[in-house]
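Supplementary notes for students who missed Thursday's class. We covered one full example, reproduced here. Read the sequence, then the structure, then the short commentary at the end.
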Amino acid sequence: MTFLEHLQGAERQNGSLLCVGLDPEPSKFPASMKGDASKIYDFCAQIVDATADLAISFKPQIAYFAAHRAEDQLEKLMAHMRRNAPHVPVILDAKRGDIGATAEQYAIEAFERYGADAVTLSPFMGFDSVQPYLKHHGKGAFLLCRTSNPGGDDLQNQRLASVDGQPLLYEHIAKLAQGPWNVNGQLGLVVGATYPAEIERVRSLAPTLPLLIPGVGAQGGDAVATIKAGYRQRNGATTGAVIVSSSRAILYASSGPDFAQAARNEAMRTRDVLRAAAQS
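Structure (token representation):
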């Protein structure tokens, strides 16, 4: 099964466009775990179990594990997700961006060590920073395109000299991902939820690619505006998928012993808002 087939299956089975981001911060854990980095797996596994029927994907952020020397817990968590939520694809949020043999090693890390279904990448160094990941059959890769941070304007919103006029850099990335770079048919783009007009622009340039959209929830992105801008259907079938990521609003919905149930409640609420927007 390819990543896109896996994604489509999760959308159908769970009726969801919600990606649950796994960004564990021990300082924000409930009282019984608070400040204890050895509990990262325990915390995340309970979130996964509470939301496995509500998510289109899970997205662990590798830095939150590596910062606490918890890569072994990430491996254990990835195995837990494959075992207990096999229908939900896992996107490793790593934002790698190197070339050559180094990129090949990063691809092995993502797909063989951790067993991710897809990974996030920075395309700044060009296609040879992306190509090593596409050699892994059926695996997905999401290229940073128009991110939600204000500093994204420094590069992404700059105009290029081009035979096609003067496209913005993020527009050029979208065209490359939809076209010549998508050699394995499994590329997607990362577009921040705080810029719905630019989500719509990316969708017009990349009509069939999945869009990974962080920034809903604690970062202030509007869920309904995000769906309207990026989600496309034809004859009842998704033609341009969106994967709307929420992390902190779900993970830390409660600081008490009911944290997993509270996370489930918030995930269900967000899932239903997104689904209603997609069906309207």
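Commentary. The radius of gyration is 18 Å. Residues 82 and 88 are 8 Å apart (CA to CA). If anything here is unclear, bring it to office hours.
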